[in-house]
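Input.
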Amino acid sequence: MRNAYLVATREYAENARTKGFWVNLLMFPILLVASVKVPELLQDKAKPVRHFVLLDQSGEFEGAVQKGIDRAHNRKVAGALLKHAQVWSDPKKAPEAPDVDWTQLPADQMGNFDPSQDPLEQFEAMVGQGEIAEAFSDPAAIKAFESVLRASMKPDAPEFSAPRRDYERVELPEGVDPTAPVMEIAKGLKPYLSGGKMPGSDRGLFALVVIPPDAAQRLKRPTDGAMAAKNQQHGADGVQFWSSNLTDQEFREEVQSALDAEVRAREFERRGVDEKTVKEVQQTRIQFASFDPTKAEGDERVSIADTLRKWAPVGFVYLLFVAIFNTVVMLLNNTVEEKSNRIIEVLVSSATPGEIMMGKLMGIAGVGLTMLCAWVLSLLGVLMWFAGPSVQWAGPLLDVIRSSGLLPLFAFYFVGGYLIFAGIFLAVGSLCSTVKEAQNFVGSAIILLMVPLFTMVFVAQEPNGTLATVMSWIPIYTPFVMMNRAAADPPLFELWGTGILMAVTAIGMLWLSGKIFRIGILRTGQPPRLIELLKALRTPSKLQ
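Output.
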């Protein structure tokens, strides 16, 4: 046992002091933070201002389209102000009515607020419903809203800076006739739409929107679907949107939404229907709440924490896959490298093959557990940092991880999964003389590891279904599937039964691997044939 401990210590030290190991540890928290912050930064900073040309040959819809684009930008400004107020909110500060100067608000917004309530909570609800987008077209109104929200913010909160526009309208270049047919206009703008710089600008043209003269007659109603399809076949395209960027559909949707809103408003007027009344009716909702019958009486209402608790195991399955895959591949590479460099022969002169194998298992397991502990601590630290009103899911997720009992299960299934796959990879490593040779065998094992990932979402949605139950009793999949089912409280029989079967399989796999390890570790050149391996497995260890 002492020799196995010495080998384990050497294996741990050899891997723990490599640069790659520490880079791996440090990269995980960086990736966690980047996954939240980078999309925001890319949206705010990296995404350039897109230029577009809007031509309304009908003379009827230009104002509606521009108003829709402005409204979308105003919603963005309102959301940015809300996030600014949430980030700098003071949880100890509960403003009362005298603390808030409501008279700063525009007169048409005074009736939307209740002076007896927290302005930040009311503003959050109004932004979520899109009720105040129109007010954010005026910079003075933005300042007024910020002044009111400062009653809930820290005294040292910086001033709010409104985000820039994502889309900016430009005039049609000289030489292009705005009254010409659409195809002729598009032909004149193709160089700019294809990446060429616009005159007097350092950027190209993101989009061209052309509204034809008869756009008001090209409406698609539910009652004339066949006619609309016929017109489409004959080239009656209606409004045309030209852009070479086929992945960013946000601006196209804004333009189409603005045109649809204007067309519907005209239809309401034509049919004598009050548009305001229709909108009020459309925004009327029945109160709806979700309840979980498995929760304690009086606490059945489903919260965001309950939803996160059901999906949190999916994240742990990803971590489990990455951790097991990294550690067993590390074990394989070390074994093949020591065999090819004949270091293993030196080790065999001082310890038995069984002690060497046990030492390798313990040493690499220590590396894997160190890596997992660092990842979990990083995850908890990042969630504690982000927890707050601006990242509403961080706090509940942190509470779920702390109180759900997922971490002990995660450690248990990591050890079980590691021992099973370590046995497979150790046997492969002992039979191969080069890493290249080992990679041919590793491919099949990786495919086996990937199967639980393919079924992960389905298992989370049907944690006690037939597929989940069957896969739980397949030992190589037990760690991943049972970890995925952890939040669904699987039957106690399955929890214990699959755990015991996994442990027995791990022991059996290590026993088989030990047999193969003994005959393969010192063998060079041609790997042993299958018949030799079968004979070795049937031969008692003392006679090998």
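The chain has two domains: 2-31+304-543, 49-286.
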